[in-house]
Write a structure and sequence with these properties.
There is one protein chain. The protein has a single domain, classed as Nuclear Transport Factor 2, Chain: A. Helices cover 36% and strands 34% of the residues. The radius of gyration is 16 Å and the shape is globular.
């Protein structure tokens, strides 16, 4: 059973996402889910606001940590004591689970990592914020080049050390994931 504090945080996150979704100009391309978002990253069509610049900075730190294979740098992007992620349907509910069973495994497996995140939409409301972004990750696994791209949502929270990622949820098209699994 979730405590009152957790329920309050979940309620505030849901409200931010609902408000953010109503203010976004994202639209699904004609033809349903077979297309991508009609709108690309913000930097493709306008300059970032102050909030968006701060959000992009946190996302850049996350991407840089992946490229550098640095747990220490990753801990400057996330809230280690209160972090969760869902990547294409697979959850890691704690930082320790993500770090030990996902992040470190990927860091040992991949080489020549290139990770790019571009903000599509995001804003802060009080001590919480959200980001909707596009990502591309590529590298080598046993000398075979692999690449995946998709969309993600981040919930950010202000801490004594600045804005950090509280939760990430990413997804990639099934055909990309199946292609990587068959490698």
């Amino acid at each position: 059973m979730l405590g009152t504090s957790t329920m309050n945080t979940i309620g505030r996150i849901a409200a931010i996402l609902l408000l953010g979704c109503s203010s976004m100009n994202l639209a699904i391309a004609a033809g349903g889910h077979s297309g991508g978002a009609a709108q690309g990253p913000i930097t493709d069509h306008r300059e970032l606001t102050g909030d968006e610049t701060a959000i992009q900075g946190v996302l850049n730190t996350y991407a840089e940590a992946m490229e550098q294979k640095s747990v220490e740098l990753m801990e400057r992007a996330v809230i280690p004591g209160d972090f969760s992620t869902i990547e294409s349907g697979y959850p890691n509910w704690t930082w320790e689970d993500f770090r030990d069973n996902h992040l470190l495994v990927e860091m040992d497996t991949f080489s020549e990592v290139d990770y790019d995140i571009k903000l599509i939409s995001g804003e802060f409301q009080g001590d919480l914020g959200f980001a909707i972004y596009q990502y591309t990750a590529s590298g080598k696994v046993q000398d075979k080049v692999v690449s995946v791209s998709g969309l993600g949502t981040a919930i950010l929270e202000t801490t004594d050390d600045g804005w950090r990622i509280h939760h990430l949820h990413t997804s990639a098209p099934r055909d990309q994931l199946e292609g990587m699994a068959g490698s």
